[in-house]
Every structure is written in structure tokens, then in C-alpha cells.
């Protein structure tokens, strides 16, 4: 499967998810990570983020996940 077209089509993203998860994963966070991944495989190198930018973006996703986890534990 070619990943680039799948990453650009939100309706096809589910094809990337391990079926053993049975739909039990944070879909919004998954879409955020896929958006970052899509940027990493842009056709032109000049359009791709640096690894520093990728790490920063992934840390932002992690913070959102942690925030929601903390909020649900209250």
C-alpha cells in the first residue's frame, strides 16, 4: 500500500490502524499524528518539516493526550 495517498485522505486512514485495536484508540490524536506523517512524505523536500519540527509537533500531540487524560481523571 502506498502510504502518501492514504495519509491525505482522512476516510482511508483507518487502513493504517492495527485491526486488533478494534477501533479503541484516540481517533483525533491519530489524525494529528497522520497529518505530521503526511508532511514528512511531501513530494518536495523543501515542503517537508525538519526533524526538530516533527519532534515539536509530536510533543504537542502528546501534551494534548496528557491533558485529556488528566482531565478525565479528575
From the alpha-carbon coordinates, what is the Rg to the nearest angstrom? 14 Å
H/E element order: HHH
What structural category do the secondary elements indicate?
A: mainly alpha
Secondary structure tally: strands = 0
How much helicity do the residues have?
55-70%
Please report the number of helical segments.
Answer: 3
Oligomer: single chain
Write up this protein.
The chain is mostly helical. It has one domain. It contains 3 helices and no strands. It has helices at 3-8, 27-40, 51-73. α2 packs antiparallel against α3 (51-73). The longest helix has 23 residues, at 51-73. The termini are far apart. GO terms for molecular function: ATP binding; protein serine/threonine kinase activity. This is Serine-threonine/tyrosine-protein kinase catalytic domain-containing protein.
Summarize the structure.
Keywords: ATP-binding, Kinase, Nucleotide-binding, Serine/threonine-protein kinase, Transferase. This is Serine-threonine/tyrosine-protein kinase catalytic domain-containing protein. By secondary structure, the chain is an all-alpha fold.
Primary descriptors:
single chain; 74 residues; mainly alpha; nucleotide-binding; ATP binding
How are the secondary structure elements laid out?
Blueprint: H1 3-8, H2 27-40, H3 51-73
Helix pairs in contact: 2-3
Protein name: Serine-threonine/tyrosine-protein kinase catalytic domain-containing protein
Keywords: ATP-binding, Kinase, Nucleotide-binding, Serine/threonine-protein kinase, Transferase
GO molecular function: ATP binding; protein serine/threonine kinase activity
